[in-house]
Automatic annotation (TrEMBL):
Keywords per UniProt: Membrane, Transmembrane, Transmembrane helix
Superkingdom of source: Bacteria
Protein name: Glycerophosphoryl diester phosphodiesterase membrane domain-containing protein
Region (Disordered): 22-46
Biased composition (Low complexity): 22-34
TM stretches of this protein: 69-99, 119-146, 167-196, 279-306, 313-338
InterPro entries: DUF7544
Amino acid sequence: MTSSQHADWNAQVDWRTGTLRARTPGAGRRTGAWRPPPQPGTMPKRPLTFFETLDGGFRLLRFAPGSTFGIALIVQTLTALLVALAITAVAVGSAGFLMRTLFSSPDAGLGLNILLQTGATAGSLASLSVGQLLSGFSAVAGDSAFGTARMSLREVWRRLAGVRLRLIGLTLLCMGAHVGALLVLMLPGLLLLLVSPAAGMVLGTLGFLAWLPVTAAAFARFALAGSVLAVERTGVREALRRSWALTRGSFWKTLGQLVLAYFLSSQVVSLIMSPVLTILLVALLALSIFLGVGGGLTLTLAAVLFGGLGVAMAAFAMASGALLFAYLCGTVSCVYFDRRMRLEGYDLVLLRRAEEAA
């Protein structure tokens, strides 16, 4: 090889002028050390399919049990205590009036039963507003689930510093809106009860049936507000506006995901509760028979046994309800991240974050 051929072999093109020039030492070689690709997290860094969103709720339960099930159990216990105190206060304060009414009117018992069933159904649906608070915890933990770092409940609580009161305010606002809409729609029927109980009952039932689609639509459009507030650290009004914008164009998909998540969690809870409650009842019955045959079953012991069974059933029911809310709110946070990926390219932010962490 001649010197000119050797020079041409070692030359490179100057793309600005189109001429050959001497190759820069080290040109064409990669600079910097080799880095492995980002490790996959619990959640995929891409838009989620319909059923991947539902599966994401179970993944978050396994990834961050304290920030999903733990906080749900705490909130469930506090809520149950407050509701029990309120019901006890109302029952004690109006016991005489209720007894006089029930004995004086034969239709009062039927009306009271329908009213209690309606109130229980409305209360269970309005309690879904607590999901705004719980989804905030799930969303903060879910944001780290796209990587490999796990977040405990204490770390999530620390991360929510500055927005905790806003999350509580958002929860109370949504619950008040659901209950207020129910009162407005049922108020004509309640007023008509004073004149015509039958007509008032029919009109009140129609108002309750009209409230169901209204509260379902509001729940689907504003369900992401808690996640928005916790992750993006916005105000309450901005969180509601962002939730409305993120669900625009996917209302039926979002509603279907949330309804199906609620149905699946309810079925899982019922599958868990049924055998456990059966075992508790059979064990109590066997113990009662054994003590009764042996002559050791006294009235005090029977009261202790049935009281212990009641406490165990109540504790298990609260744990089951917490599991339901934890999965549902985990699914809500997955819907939030999926909508951000599809509308705002949030998956690119997650990939860039994983590359920097690697």
